Amino acid sequence: MTISFFVPAHITGFFSIENNTDPLKNGSLGAGFLLDRGVKTTIKDSSEFKINVNQGSDIVINEVLKHFKINAPFEITQDIQLPIGAGFGTSAASALSLSLALNEFFDFGYSYEECGQIAHMVEVSLGGGLGDVIGQTGSGMVLRTSPGAPGVGRIESFDEDLFVATKFFGEIDTASIIRNPQHKKLISKTGHECLNEFMQDISVGKFLELSLIFSQNTKLMTDEVKSLVDYFNSSDDILGASMAMLGNTVFAFAYNESAFKNLNIKNLDIDKLYKKRQL
Ligand SMILES: Nc1ncnc2c1ncn2[C@@H]1O[C@H](COP(=O)(O)OP(=O)(O)O)[C@@H](O)[C@H]1O
Ligand SMILES: CC(C)(COP(=O)(O)O)[C@@H](O)C(=O)O
């Protein structure tokens, strides 16, 4: 038997850190969006236990496995379709796709939300993220209105037909930012301001405008990210651009793919905004 689960990448535009001693309530508020690429985890029968990952280590996988009691040997294959540590929420997508796949393969009988809660606990314990797992249960542009794991926090999804360009310059260690008191204070103050403004006008244009304000006011934007963001924002065909939280990565939105191709930027990846299929 072979079971595969795909979970989309989640990029945050702005957020506030909402820590709680209960890991299921520990999380973030904010807004982001999902991409058509993500992480696909496949599980199949095998005579010995095997892990194949196309990048990174088995740290996320081992943390997820601690939550499941499995005696039989099996093989895990993870296809991580975007760079790790670059603000694409790959650690959350790895954890969630693996939880869902293990649940189905071994017939544990957990609900979708319970699998999400396992992935969320793995994320917060490793410091890989706060709101990516719940965001990844949504569709299109995702607003987080109450912090925590799936079934505990709350999100709202907005489907949009958009193209997203991303350019990756390098990693940012998420844990070192979200566990640093100075960063936490500034991120949460700015994140709450952005969220309050967004609630008055929930739109793609406002999301892009506030994401840029957030990345400037939190001083998280590096020089190379800033110059590409400025270049994108100088084009009339681009709806807006900002930095992917938390990575050394630029994202930009457009209604047409040609808007990006005309700019001739090297190593630009182009995705569509992810739409959840109706079951
Ligand atoms: N399979 C994996 N998937 C995701 N992250 C991994 C994996 N293996 C190792 N890691 C580590 O987990 C951390 C992910 O960092 P994080 O900043 O949360 O990335 P992302 O923005 O992609 O979620 C990095 O330290 C990375 O080295
Ligand atoms: C921004 C971040 C805290 C981290 O995101 P990433 O680096 O992609 O894991 C995210 O989880 C969020 O809560 O908004």
Automatic annotation (TrEMBL):
One GO BP annotation of this record: coenzyme A biosynthetic process
Matching PANTHER family: PANTOATE KINASE (PTHR42282:SF1), PANTOATE KINASE-RELATED (PTHR42282)
Role according to the record: Phosphorylates (R)-pantoate to form (R)-4-phosphopantoate in the CoA biosynthesis pathway.
Pathway, per record: Cofactor biosynthesis; coenzyme A biosynthesis
Keyword Chaperone found: no
Pfam families in the cross-refs: GHMP_kinases_N (PF00288)
Reaction(s) this enzyme catalyzes, per UniProt: (R)-pantoate + ATP = (R)-4-phosphopantoate + ADP + H(+)
InterPro entries in alphabetical order: GHMP_kinase_N_dom, PoK, Ribosomal_Su5_D2-typ_SF, Ribsml_uS5_D2-typ_fold_subgr
SUPFAM superfamilies: Ribosomal protein S5 domain 2-like
Annotated GHMP kinase N-terminal domain residues: 61-134
Membrane-spanning segments: none
Keywords per UniProt: ATP-binding, Coenzyme A biosynthesis, Kinase, Nucleotide-binding, Transferase
Family (UniProt): Belongs to the GHMP kinase family. PoK subfamily.
Enzyme Commission no: 2.7.1.169
GO molecular function: ATP binding; kinase activity
Protein name: Pantoate kinase
